[in-house]
Design brief:
Blueprint (H helix, E strand, L loop, with lengths): L17 E6 L5 E5 L2 E6 L2 E4 L12 E8 L4 E8 L2 E10 L2 E2 L1
Antiparallel strand pairs: 1-2, 2-3, 3-4, 5-6, 6-7, 7-8
């Protein structure tokens, strides 16, 4: 049986908490930090809200719930009209 260990992934610089929700075979991990969807890659944490296009400031990507081996990230976010699903693509070593 392979030994498992717990790893502290860290949180955003201004944050209080984070949690992981899913990992793919490349070690990319998604979850949430202070109700912001995040990606951990190469021991770094990335706020996925930084990928939103200009003009979408009223939207917030709240939780990333899954990532597959092609880098497709699914989750949900909120805006003034309610909760909405999202899909993003993360390429290993570079976010799109």
């Amino acid at each position: 049986m392979k030994r498992q260990r717990i790893t502290d992934l860290g949180k955003l610089p201004d944050g209080n908490y984070s949690f992981a929700a899913a990992v793919n075979r490349f070690g990319q991990i998604v979850g949430s930090a202070d109700f912001r969807a995040v990606l951990w890659e190469d021991e770094q944490i990335y706020d996925l809200n930084g990928l939103l296009a200009a003009g979408t400031e009223s939207r917030s990507l709240g939780v990333a719930r899954g990532i597959n081996d092609k880098g497709y990230i699914v989750g949900f976010g909120i805006d003034e009209t309610g909760t909405h699903p999202f899909v993003l693509v993360a390429t290993r070593g570079k976010l799109k």
